[in-house]
# Entry
Amino acid sequence: MATKCTNCPLRRRSLFTEMSKDDVAFMEKFKVGELVVEANTPILMEGSNSPQLYTALHGLGLRHKTLSNGDRQVLNFVFPGDFIGLQAGILGEMGHSVEASTGMTLCVFDRSEFWNFFKHNPERAFDLTWLAAVEEHLLGDALATVGQRSALEATAWAITRVYQRADALGLVRNQTTRFPFKQKDLADALGLSLVHMNKTLKKLRDLQLASWSNGELHISDLNKLAEIGVIDLAKPSQRPLF
# Structure
C-alpha cells in the first residue's frame, strides 16, 4: 500500500522543514500513488515528456546527460526526498535522464495537475522554486569544483557532501553509508578519468580518511576530509519536502 503523507518517514527527519496539516492534506490529494523500480531502471529519459513527476521516498539514483557521441555526463546523485521531473513539469520535456542505482520507491504526482498546484497552493509552489534555486546552486558548486579543485580536493569535496546528505537522512551507521555507485559515475561527475579517480580514492584510503568498496562508503576522519575538500562542515540547511 502507498505511504500516506501523514506517515511519511522523511517528514521525521530534521533536514526537512515542517509541513502544516493543510500542506500534508494537500499533498495527499496531489499524490496519485507510488512506483517501485529495480536497480538500473530508467525513471525519466532525456527529451521525454513524462506525464508524471516523482519524489524519491526510498533508494538512490543518479541524474545524467548523454552527449551526441554517446558519452554520459553524470550531473548529481539522487537521494530520498529529492524531487524528480521539475524540468518536464515546466519545460515540457526532460533535459537529462534519471535512473535508479538501487531499488527505489517513488511518490508519484500527476503532471497535468501541476499548474493547479501552483495556482491553489502558492506557498508550496514557492518551495518548488526554492528547490530549483538550490539545485542551480549545487550545480554551480560542482562546476567550481571541476574547474578549481585538484583531483584530491574534488574527490574529498564530493565524498564529504555525499556523507553529509546521507547522515542528515539517517543513512549513516558506524561512520558508514551505502553508496552503490560506480567509480566511473563519480569520475564523470568530477570530470576525472577512471584511472585518476582510482588513484585518488587509493590516496584517501592510504591517508586513512575514507574508503569506498562493495557499495559502501566509510569515513574515518570527516573533519580532515572536509579540510582537504575545502568545504564547510556546517549542518545542512533545512529544505522543503515535496
